[in-house]
Amino acid sequence: MYLLNKKILVFIAGLILIIVIAYYLSVSFNDKIDIQIPKETTLIQEDHSEKKDSLDLFFSFLEYYELVEGDTFISTLKKTNLNKREIDQLIIAVKDVIEINQLRIGTRIEMISDLIKEERIIKEIIIYPDREEKISILRIDDRFTVRKDIKTLYSELVFHEIEIEKSIYSSLKNINVPDNIIMSFVQLFSFDIDFQRDIRNKNKINILFEQFKDKDGELIKSGSIFFAKIILTKDSYELYKFENDNYIEYFNSDGKSATKALMKTPINGARLSSAYGMRKHPILGYNKKHMGVDFAAPIGTPIMAAGTGHIEYIGTNGGAGKYIRIKHLNGYKTSYSHLSSYASGIQKNVRVKQGQTIGYVGSTGLSTGPHLHYEVIFNGNKINPMKMKLPSGKKLKGINLNNFLTERDRINNEISKIKN
Ligand SMILES: [Zn+2]
Predict the structure, then answer these.
(1) Within its chain, how far is the Cα of 327 from the centroid?
(2) Are residues 23 and 143 in the same domain?
(3) 10 Å Cβ neighbour count for 394?
C-alpha cells in the first residue's frame, strides 16, 4: 500500500515536470515551426515508460505562427508532420470557406496537437484571417471539418472637434484616430488645401467617423468618415459622405464635390491604347511594367493639365521625348510624354489650371506612333491613373441632391446628439 502511494507520488511529480516543460516549450517555440517532439520531453517520458501505456499519457500543445513575406498557408503546413495526403485533404476541406492564397502577411495560424504515445498529432488548425473571423479546421478520425465563426460587430459613431497642433496627422494621432481614417481625411482635402502652407496652429478640425467593436467593447476595425471639416484662418471646407447606387463620394453642404482632383484622361477623344501594368515593351521588346497609360490620338491633339499646379519640368527627357511634368498639391505629380510641341506660354514654374492646354500629341522619343503616355506620381511612386479614387468635382442635382440634403441633415443630427 505504502509502495503504491510512493509510486503514484513519483508519477504525479513526473507528470507535473512534463507539463511544466511542455508549457515552456510551447511558449518558447511558438514563433517558429518545430513540430518535432522536443528531446527533453522524450527523455522524461522514457523514465516513465512502463506507466505510460496503462495511463495513456495525453498532452495538448498550442503553437502559433504569423505569416511573413513569402509564406503561404500551404508552405506552413509543409513544415509540420502532416503528410502530403493529409495536406491535400485539408486544403480541399478549407478551400470553399476561405481563399487560402490570399491570406495577409501577419495572419495568425494556431496549431493544436495532441501528444499520443510519443507522436504529435495535429488535431486542430485555427486561422485568423482578420480580427472578425476565425476559421477552425478540426481533425475528426481521418477527416477534416471546417467551421467559420464571425464576430458580431457593433457600430459606433465617433466625433472629434479639435485644434490643430503642429500637423493634422499628429493632432488626430494624439487623440487615437486610426491611421487609415487620418489618411482618408487628408486625402479628402488634398486638392483644395495645401497642407504645408495653408494650415496654421489653432486651425480647427471636425471629424465624424464610424468604428466597430465586438460585444466585449474591444475595437475591431474602423469604418468610414461621415463628416470632415477643416476651419482655416480665412476659409473653411466641409464634406459629407453620400452614397447612392453608383458612387460613394463627399460633397459640401450644397452638394458640390471636393475639387476635381486629377483627370484620368487628360485628352479629348482619345482611345486608351495601353493600360497600366506588365506588358511587352513595343520597342525594347522585353517585358516591363508599364508605369503609365497610353492614349492613342492624332498628332496635334491638345493635351490638358490633369490638375491645377505648376510646371516642374519641360523639355526633352530621353525615351519620353518632348516631356512635361506638373507638380500639384500634397505630393501629386503628373507627366506627359512623346509630345510633338508645347502650348505657347508653357514654361518651367508657370502655374497651370486644370483643363488648360499644355502641349500636343506627338511621337517623339521611344514611341511607335502618335500617342500620349500619361503618368500619375504620388509621393515619388507611379500609380495607376485609372484606379485613382479621388473627388470627381461633380455637382448634385434633382433627386440626388434631395437625397443628399436628407443625408446631410441626418449626419448633422448625429453630430449634435453626440455633442450633447
Ligand atoms: Zn506608355
Answers:
(1) 26
(2) yes
(3) 14
307-344: pLDDT as tens digits = 989 999 999 999 999 999 999 988 899 999 999 999 99
- Burial bucket for residue 229 (CB in 10 Å: 0-12, 13-18, 19+): buried
8 Å CB contact between 125 and 74: no
For the record, the C-alpha cell of 1 comes out as: 500500500
The residue range of the domain holding 226 is 151-261+390-420
Q: How far apart are CA 314 and CA 273, in angstroms?
A: 24
Where do the H-state alpha helices sit in 288-342? none
Centre of ligand 1 to C-alpha 296, Å, is 10
Residue type, 14: G
Please give the angle made by the CA atoms of 115, 117 and 121, to the nearest 5 degrees: 40
The Å distance, Cα 293 to ligand 1 centre, comes to 5
Distance 344 CA to ligand 1 centre (A): 25
How much of the chain, in percent, has pLDDT values that exceed 70?
A: 83
Contact between 68 and 105 (Cβ < 8 Å): yes
Based on the fold, state whether residues 75 and 160 are members of the same structural domain. no
Whole-angstrom distance, CA of residue 254 vs CA of residue 269 = 32
Tell whether 160 and 33 lie within a shared domain. Answer: no
Alpha-carbon distance of 197 to 203, in angstroms, equals: 12
Are the C-beta atoms of 364 and 339 separated by less than 8 Å? yes
In a domain, 266, yes or no: no
pTM of the model: 0.61
Q: Is 180 helix (H, G, I), strand (E, B) or coil?
A: helix
Is 109 found in the same domain as 68? yes
Q: How far is the CA of 352 from the centre of ligand 1 (A)?
A: 23
pLDDT band at 48 (very low <50, low <70, confident <90, very high): very low
Evaluate whether residue 249 is within a structural domain: yes
Grid coordinates of 141: 478520425
pLDDT in tens, 102-150: 888 889 999 988 877 777 888 899 999 888 889 999 998 878 999 998 8
Same domain? 225 vs 277 = no
pLDDT digits (tens, 9 = 90+) for 340-365: 999 999 999 999 988 899 999 999 99
Cα of 374 to ligand 1 centre, how many Å?
7
